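Methods — Computational structure assignment.
A single polypeptide chain was analysed. Its primary sequence is given first, followed by the predicted tertiary structure written as structure tokens.
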Amino acid sequence: MRWNPLDWILGFFALDLGIDLGTTNTLVYVRGKGIVVNEPSWVVMEKRTRRPLYVGAQAKNMAGRTPAHWIALRPVRDGVIAEFDITAALLDYFIGKAHEQSLVPFPRPRVVIGVPSGVTEVEMRAVYDAALAAGAREVYLVAEPVAAALGAGLPVEESVGNMVVDIGGGTTEVAILSMGGVVTSRSLRVAGDEMDEAIVQYMRNKYNLLIGQRMAEEIKIQIGSAFPLPEEKVTVVRGRNLVTGLPEEVQVSSVEIREALSGIVQTIIDTVRDTLEDAPPEILADLMDRGICLTGGGALLQGLEQRLSEDLRLKVWVPEDPISTVARGAGWLLEHLPEKRHLLMDSQHFLPVSSSPVS
């Protein structure tokens, strides 16, 4: 790529960003500042022109309440881009927000973005192009389980086995890492969104009550669990009765929601078990000592840590602030380029060389 002096000047004053472009939330890490953006990956746009109107938390608050000529959507589905132009607008907003305290009018940052380990090259290219369209001057991609492991402080470059289970909104990433590489991994497009949908279906089938995804998410956060709680909880759920068509509210217990989530939780456990079965015996011996690191928003589901530990007979632990591990890991990689380039995604042949005179 030809060196553009304007890009280099703007880039000199821009911040380096680690980005977790998630299905549910997008987090941005800035070197020396930590996580500066943590907002929902929602956009409200005009239906006819497809012009973005609101982004982030403001857009999510409008979901389900927009007028007929507007639409609220998430442009990232199952961890990959479903709406290219809208995702570019989303990234542009978050890059601008990360630079709010700086004096750069048109930031041209270097970014590392976490993507699911099971993405295709076409899906990788979409993320790369969307970041360039949003104003990034250099874009690097890293597998989410690798970034999550780095963000959790795991010694992924040592000759010892480490395992991370990253449960996001759209995907569950399971990987065993050692000596700077992935020993074996699984990328499952079953995660937080499917938990919400399971609650929606449970309420429909048991109570003839139609609820929205946002209500389901609130129920999951309040009383959702994967293991019996010391004291079971109850919450009020509001929706539309499918028989009468009128508004209705019912009381639902955490025992019922645990039943609704049981199928999704079991699918995740089975995926982790399959990954363990592919690991060499030496790695399994390491994991018996080190345990499994549970990250992502799904790590906050009550009792999931205990359920995994009981079913897999391994210690399971959750790092501090598990939601931000991918963004922090991506940011750490930027801070240690170029000596850590080998930890980036292997399929990098479509990425141009650095546009700046100094890497």
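Note: The domain at 5-147+324-343 is CATH 3.30.420.40 (Nucleotidyltransferase; domain 5).
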